[in-house]
Design goal:
single chain; globular; 4-stranded antiparallel sheet
């Protein structure tokens, strides 16, 4: 069975940057991903990757966590302040807390080493489908959420006219919520419609990140509410 190859919206092969200090793995991933239809650029450190990001546009970063200098989690967190490019973290640390830390830093997915190359392809294809697809727009006008406004047509969150940075996944989740205000959406439904891994606590981590951006007190949410035993509901103004 062949693995589906995802093409960018403009028909050009998606451009992936692999960031890993392991020369052997970096070269293997470059060859393997290239053979499966992707354009690939490599970097050996966060600093090297940052320099290449200044001059090139990427559809996805495949980023090692344990690197000399700035590690992958810290680099992801810093990138998320200004860049919405999807990020898949690779790490030898497979504990649940390590996975949660990676997702909380802003990563879109997390794959533990050693991994099957086919699984990496599937993870990449899933992320690219989710981030490159244009979601159906149910709500045309901006929706007020406390001091914020969310504009579903362009996936943008603003406060007093200033844009608030959202990842692709966060924007997609907000679009799902504002299309059904007050309706409880189960974790499984949210994962299915947004392409989030249904295993572990990935969806809960994404909800926590969203709350930090739209709630005055994320620990006592006023708008993005937990419905115990069922899921989550958005109660906008």
């Amino acid at each position: 069975m062949s693995v589906e190859k995802t093409q960018a919206i403009d028909g050009e092969a998606p451009h992936i940057m692999v960031v890993d200090d392991d020369d052997r793995l970096r070269k293997l991933l470059r060859r393997y991903l290239s053979e499966n239809g992707y354009r690939v650029t490599t970097a050996q450190s966060a600093a090297d990757a940052e320099a290449k990001l200044r001059g090139l546009t990427f559809d996805l970063l495949v980023l090692d966590v344990m690197m000399p200098g700035e590690n992958g989690v810290d680099f992801t967190h810093r990138l998320r302040q200004s860049l919405p490019v999807p990020i898949l973290l690779l790490t030898a640390m497979g504990e649940a807390e390590d996975r949660i830390a990676g997702l909380e830093s802003g990563a879109d997915d997390y794959l533990t080493k050693p991994f099957e190359p086919r699984e990496l392809l599937l993870r990449i294809a899933t992320i690219l489908r989710r981030t490159q697809a244009v979601p159906p727009l149910v709500v045309e006008t901006a929706v007020r959420i406390g001091a914020f406004e969310f504009h579903p047509a362009r996936g943008e969150l603003t406060r007093e006219g200033e844009s608030v940075r959202l990842t692709h996944t966060e924007a997609q989740l907000l679009t799902l919520f504002v299309s059904q205000p007050g309706v409880t959406l189960s974790r499984d439904e949210l994962c299915r419609q947004s392409g989030i891994d249904a295993g572990g606590r990935a969806i809960d981590v994404q909800i926590t990140r969203l709350r930090r951006k739209i709630e005055a007190d994320p620990r006592s949410p006023r708008y993005l509410c937990t419905v115990w035993g069922e899921g989550y509901a958005l109660r906008p103004d």
